[in-house]
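Write out this protein's structure.
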Amino acid sequence: MTVLWVALGGGVGAGARYLAGRHLSSYASFPVPTFVVNVVGCLILGLLAGATLPPAVFALLGTGFCGGLTTYSTFATESVGLTRVGRSVTSVLYVAASLAVGIGFAWLGFRITA
C-alpha cells in the first residue's frame, strides 16, 4: 500500500514541477524554475522531517510529493549545460545558491516543526 501513496504523491509533485516550469521564467541564464522547485521541496521536506507523521503520510508527502517536485538530474544537467555554453560563472552561482538556500530551507523547515 505504501508504494501507492508514494506514486500518488509523486504524480502530484511532478505535475506541480511541470506547472512551475510553465509559469516561471529563467532570469538571464539562471534556471529559476528548477531552483524554485528544489528549494521549496527542501523546505517542505524539512517541515515533514521535523514533524511526527504516520509513515503513510510521510510516504505520500515526503517521498512521493517532494520526490516528484524536486529534481536533482535537471539541476545537474542545467549546471553542466551552463558551463558548456560559456556561462561558467552562472553555473557556479546556480550550484552554490542551490546548495546554500536548499540546505538553509531544509534546516528552517526542520526547526519550525521539530
